[in-house]
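Weekly structure sync, notes
Attendees: PL (lead), two postdocs, one rotation student
Agenda item 3: pending single-chain targets
PL asked that the sequence for the first pending target be pasted directly into the notes so everyone works from the same version. It is reproduced below exactly as submitted, 111 residues in total.
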Amino acid sequence: LAGALYEETVPLAQEVKDARLELECWRMAGWCWETQKEAERALALGQRAWEVGRALDAQTRATSTLPYVAEALVRLSHERRGPGAARAMEREIESVLGPDWRPETPAAGGA
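Predicted structure, written out during the meeting:
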C-alpha cells in the first residue's frame, strides 16, 4: 500500500535532515491511509507531520505543505473526536499559522 511506502521513506528524509521532506512523507502517508478508510491511522500520521511542521522556521513553514496537513487534521479530528476536537485543532493551527492558514483551493473550472 502507498501509505506504508510513504511511511518507509520517513527515515530517508530524516537521514538527509530534510524536515520539509519528512513532513511531506508523513502527510502523504496519512492521506493514503485516509483514502483507505483508516482514519485513526491517518490522524496519527497527520499529527506526526504537524509536529515536524511546527518545528520548521517560519520561512520554511511558509513554503511547506503544512496548511494541507492542518486541513486534514481538522477534518479527521472532527470525524474521529467530534466538533470540539476539531475546534481545538483549529485554535492550535491558528496559533502557529495565523488566522488565514487554510490552503487556497483552485477556482472552479481549472487553473
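Discussion points:
- The two ends are 31 Å apart (CA to CA).
- Helices lie at 2-15, 19-35, 39-55, 58-62, 66-81, 83-97.
Action: rotation student to compare against the earlier draft before next sync.
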